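Example S7 (C-alpha cells).
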C-alpha cells in the first residue's frame, strides 16, 4: 500500500545508508516506494481540530486499509468517525487508481446518501479539518520536478531538503512543496506547502519524531497540519490504550466488503 493518507499515517521500511549521490527524484521515489505497511492496516485514531486560541474539538476515527492490487501496489482505505455525536457515522472511502486520480466517496448521516467527491472538490476541506481532499490522496512522483536544496539536521534526524514543483500547475493544489525527508527512514517529517495565489507558505505538515516499529513495521504516531493563514491546525494521531500501547495492527484479515459504497451507507 503506497500511502494510506498524508494525515492519517506515514509508514516506512528503514533502509541502510546510501553509497551514491542522491537526486531530488531519488529521494522522493524512495519516500514513496519503500512504504511497506503490509497487506492490511487497522487503527483507532484521534483527530483534534485546534483553533487559533488553542480550543480543541476532539474526534475519534476508525481506519481500515488493504492492498487490493499487489502487482501495482494499489490500496483502498475507509474511515469511520466514531465521536462526537455531531459527526458520528460519517464514512469516507478512497480507492487508489493506476494512472488516474483516486476515487473518493463520503457518506454523511444528515444526507442519508453516499456522495462522490469530484476532482474539482480537491481543494475543499476534509470534514472541517485543515486537510483537503487532495491532501488525502497520493501524488505521483512524476507529476512534479524535484530538486535537493540542501542536507540538514531537523530535530533527531538528518534530512534531505527537497523542493517539488508541479509540472502542470493547473493540476496541483500548491505552487510548490518543500519536504524534509529523513535519511534513515525516508519519511517526510516536515512539509511546507506554498500558495499558488500569494507564493507564501500556506500550510505546514509536521511529524512528531517518535517513529517506532509496530509488528516489525516503522510507524509514525502523530502528525500536525497547520494553516499558516488562519492559525487553525489539525492533529492526527494513533490513540493509545490504558497500557500505553497504540491501537494499530497490520496484516490482519479484513473483509473486502468493508471497502464498498454499501458499507459507507450501512456501516456493515
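Recovered sequence:
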Amino acid at each position: 500500500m503506497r500511502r494510506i493518507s498524508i494525515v492519517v499515517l506515514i509508514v516506512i521500511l528503514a533502509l541502510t545508508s546510501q553509497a551514491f549521490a542522491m537526486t531530488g527524484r531519488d529521494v522522493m521515489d524512495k519516500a514513496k516506494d519503500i512504504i511497506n505497511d503490509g497487506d492490511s492496516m487497522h487503527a483507532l485514531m484521534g483527530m483534534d481540530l485546534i483553533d487559533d486560541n488553542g480550543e480543541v474539538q476532539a474526534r475519534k476515527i476508525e481506519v481500515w486499509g488493504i492492498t487490493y492490487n499487489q502487482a501495482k501496489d494499489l490500496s483502498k482505505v475507509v474511515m469511520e468517525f466514531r465521536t462526537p455525536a455531531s459527526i458520528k457515522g460519517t464514512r469516507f472511502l478512497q480507492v487508489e487508481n493506476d494512472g488516474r486520480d483516486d476515487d473518493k466517496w463520503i457518506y454523511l448521516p444528515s444526507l442519508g446518501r453516499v456522495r462522490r467527491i469530484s476532482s474539482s472538490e480537491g481543494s475543499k476541506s476534509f470534514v472541517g479539518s485543515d486537510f483537503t481532499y487532495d491532501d488525502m490522496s497520493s501524488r505521483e512522483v512524476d507529476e512534479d520536478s524535484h530538486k535537493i536544496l540542501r542536507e540538514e539536521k531537523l530535530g533527531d534526524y538528518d534530512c534531505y531538503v527537497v523542493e517539488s514543483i508541479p509540472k502542470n500547475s493547473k493540476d496541483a493544489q500548491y505552487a510548490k512543496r518543500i519536504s524534509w525527508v529523513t535519511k534513515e527512514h525516508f519519511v517526510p517529517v516536515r512539509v511546507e506547502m506554498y500558495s499558488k495565489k500569494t507564493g507564501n507558505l500556506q500550510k505546514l505538515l509536521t511529524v512528531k519524531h517518535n517513529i517506532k516499529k509496530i509488528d516489525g513495521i516503522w510507524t509514525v504516531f502523530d502528525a500536525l497540519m497547520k494553516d499558516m493563514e488562519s492559525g487553525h491546525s489539525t492533529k492526527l494521531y494513533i490513540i493509545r490504550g490504558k497500557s500505553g500501547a497504540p491501537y494499530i495492527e497490520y496484516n490482519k484479515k479484513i473483509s473486502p466488503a468493508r471497502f464498498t459504497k454499501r458499507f459507507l451507507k450501512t456501516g456493515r
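Notes on this example. The first strand starts at residue 11 and ends at 12.
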